[in-house]
Amino acid sequence: MKFGLERIAVEVPRHSLDLALLAEARGVDVKKYHQGIGQEFMAVPSPDEDVVTLGAAAAERALEGVDRNRIRTVIFATESGVDQSKAAAIYVHKLLGLPRNCRTVEMKQACCSGTSALHFALASVALEPESKILVICADIARYGLGTAGEPTQGAGAVAMVVSSQPKIATINPKVGYFTDDVMDFWRPNYREEALVDGKYSIKVYMHALEQACKAYHIETGEGFDSFQHFCYHLPFTRMGLKAHLHLAKVVESSLTGSELHAQVQPSLQLNPKTGNAYTASLYMGLLSLLEQQEDLAGRKVGMFSYGSGCMGAFFSLEILAGYKEALPQESSQEILAKREALDMATYETWYETRMPQDGSAFDTPHISDRPFRFAGVADHKRRYERLDGRLEHSSSSASEHFVAAPLPDS
Ligand code: CAA
Q1: Percent of the chain residues past pLDDT 70, beyond the cut
Q2: Cα 37 to ligand 1 centre (Å)
Q3: For the chain, which residues make up each domain, given as ranges?
Q4: Is pTM, for the whole model, over 0.70?
Q5: Which residue in 136, 116, 135, 142 sits closest to 42, CA to CA?
Q6: Active-site residue, from 15, 93, 229, 233
Q7: Which CATH code of 2.30.30.60, 3.40.47.10, 3.40.50.2300, 3.40.50.720 fits the domain covering 4-342?
Q8: Which of 48, 105, 175, 339 yields a CA-CA distance of 20 to 30 A from 371?
Q9: What is the mean pLDDT of residues 289-299?
Q10: Closest atom of ligand 1 relative to the 148 alpha carbon
């Protein structure tokens, strides 16, 4: 039996900031952003967007044509969660009307918990092959205004359906892991912005890549030459290319520079327009690769996931014949093309917007045009809205296997 990706879909905030505006405001040569780090735009969430609304919208797209009653688990991977206790997966579960007989959980390890979620999902599906698992990776990357990390901010979500009926790719369950306790990037509970030792973080990333690849080789016997394409975690777009060239050097690859570029370039088409989306970045890279015109059926892809702190994971997938029919109708580039441009003043105002810390009631301004929005807080409780008029929990009573009644109101 095969296990892997049945569906994959992306969501980004409605607004983006042109990094030419940021460069001008910060007195930086724009070529540093465009060429040096490879970023053109940064996705900027409005005050009524968060990881729940982004994740729910990506999941709604990923679930097109999927029998929702088969979703047994929702795993939400994020490092910008909205609650210290309650899983963001529960909010999404309600917004999407998923069956009540469902497991919901949130996972964290910086940018690589989405990859662990994917492998936990594979293991679950192997135990219960009739089930489907919804994996959501969603994040909002925040550094400080005026810091070196600022141009690498971004946001976005990718949702994936993992099942025993993969239509996009099979995933090899073997993974090469690397973990070490380092402080390259972290966010203490009392901070909204990450702390980062930027140059050190790049060194640690490269070391984790080497070690995870070595571990993968020991696990599987497969190496650099086993793959036609590579996708990397993308804290900024140039990092993908840097990482690939570094790995090629370490393994003494005989490929030419242009052959190496061709292996990684197709996965780098979305990130320049979104910026870092932490857990979602690697999978936006995968979607970018899958949306290339060329038919990639039968190709093997090496995937490197990195989470600061740190953990690295190298694994692989094989693209299936007919995968293009399983991709969402609206392409990622079409979704990006519909975004609205922000000016610097609004970007900085939104950046500084903080919700009350004492739980007092507030309503967010209605800015997002997406199907789901964060409406505000009352009595310390977050409120979400579904705007397209579809009913929440509409499918639970239709389940052929499990029927759970809702709880009474408190
Ligand atoms: N024209 C063209 N290129 C220029 C230029 C110009 N005028 N000015 C500078 N550059 C180039 C530099 O040569 C450099 O390229 P190389 O690395 O290839 O030499 C590049 O632009 C960046 O310049 P600097 O190194 O001087 O930039 P910086 O000091 O502002 O820091 C950064 C860059 C470390 C990426 C910083 O943006 C940062 O800290 N980002 C957040 C942390 C991060 O992304 N870390 C990555 C690994 S950690 C991880 O992966 C987890 C995660 O998601 C965060």
Answers
A1: 95
A2: 5
A3: 4-342
A4: yes
A5: 142
A6: 233
A7: 3.40.47.10
A8: 105
A9: 97
A10: 30
